[in-house]
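Step 1: inspect the first sequence and its tokens.
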Amino acid sequence: MASSIFPILVVCVVMCSYSHIARAQGSQPIVGGLSWSYYAAACPRLESVVRKQLQKVFKNDIGQAAGLLRLHFHDCFVQGCDASVLLEGSASGPGEQTAPPNLSLRGFRIIDDLRRRVHQKCGTVVSCSDILALAARDAVFLSGGPDYNVPLGRRDGLNFATVQATLANLPPPSSNTTALLTFLATKNFTPTDVVALSGGHTIGVSHCTSFTGRLYPTQDPTMDKTFANNLKDICPTNNSNNTTVLDLRSPNVFDNKYYVDLMNKQGLFTSDQDLYTDPRTRGIVTSFAVNQTLFYEKFVVAMIKMSQLSVLTGGQGEIRANCTVRNSGRVSISSVGDEEEARSAF
């Protein structure tokens, strides 16, 4: 009898989990000009084309999932979700890709390949910014996380941000919780949103230089000693260029183990670990660590909110025929020169 009940219980748990997520996304306000069914008539196969191709990409290299998720974050936080991070520099100056936090970004070719496939099916009607938003969603789902709907209808930006503006909108991994909460409050994110979005670090890797300040010259006391010693083996000097995983327990699976890491003093960045140290966010970290469904629900809410930051709609912007350049081939901007590589907290 028990053997027949178990599958029913599993199905119930899964259905209840997705029921919570569906209610969460259904309650989200949508920016004017966006729609849950924006391409229903113009490109009905859009989401199928994107997901099928990404299944192939991730089967070959699951690490690309974290890259696409991070690319979406870095696009949205800097002048909104307008695919400006995809634009290459021009004679007017370097693009956002040259800013220190963006030097290690990847996934550009994947996005433009998706754009090519989508435009072959539907014509030039789908924006690069919408494709990037869908790719980030599928990166989460195809690595084990929640599936959710994405409001669509974004237009692509005509200009990229300056390096200074990019730096100002991507807090570094050395940020403490006060800095993160203060900065993200300006974009209308709550503490719960901040902790949930930080959970994107459940997949991916980081270069040593983003966290060796916690190891040298003295070890950060909020870091587990064994964890720190293992990191020192990977990063023997302060300027080592090796990489390590962001989530010690399940680095390629989108789950809630990142928060378990934090409770065990095994967060990689200051911006990660301080979420558990700070009493304002400690309870949120704990709740996500013990309840993956709750994490998924709050992550979806925060992602849908983030994906609508300062979007262009209607007659604003354009639909790029090539994600790396605006249609006219001109990008008007003034910026600064080369910088050393860095990373953001997201």
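Step 2: inspect the second sequence and its tokens, then contrast the two.
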Amino acid sequence: MKEGTEGVMELSDVDELTMKAFLQWVYYKGEYTIENPKASSSLLKHTKVYVLADRFNIVPLKDLSYNQITTLLADLGMVAAADDVEAVMAAVSFAFGNLPFSSSTLSSITAPTERLLKYFAHYTSWALDVFRTNAELCSLLEHSPDFAKALVTNSRSAPTAPWAASTIDSGSESKGTMTLTASYTGDKSHILHRGCARPECSYTGVMIIQCPSCKKVDSEIGGSIQFKGSILGTVEQDRITGTKTSYSYKCKWCNVKSDMGGTRGEKLFCRKCLYGSQDWVMT
């Protein structure tokens, strides 16, 4: 072989940063460094290291890069900023394009057995509301049957039948308490119903909220609501109560309860363009 006679192995498909990380790991006691390690852009860099390690079956390096990826994603939580969404999808796309979906040849397998692909599929399914309009996700669904199968396998069933009511008549009266299901955009009485602060975006609807304590975002606000003559928020954990201008929010991530409202520090994210701001058009 050429490598044996010339003592040189050419890896034209491995970029410089990935090779640098690999050489650091080889020569510096099993560690490697990446610039801006806590940034979402590092996900793709770690994923490339993982793919290289998988290619040559370097298990310790695979373990290290896998731990870096999963730790970073756990820290990022539910991404919302456009740059973070793009960064996550770039890593997911690279992984599904360069890792074996399964060690089996059975065509009936619908879920990946490769651990990073399983993790990415689970994360993408969990954060699907954020990724729905992402061009990379649409392209991946079109060109990667493996990813499409994995996403479907991890997806949850719809919470209601298609004939169930999805909007609420805000003029209704109720003396008791009842649980209703509201669409994100049709529920004008919801506490987090706003118009996007980005002039070029036309979205008006229930926003995604960011916890002022741990800074993670919560996209589940706005699904099920409690009706006591006025809209009060989610039923399951009673995490948001009050009015549009003054409300209390309990974070599902850190469990801290915060008094919020108006522009007193919380950041809301648009569900359409994922723009995050403290200044919103009240509806």
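Step 3: confirm your contrast with the notes below.
The two ends are 70 Å apart (CA to CA). Residues 3 and 141 are 38 Å apart (CA to CA).
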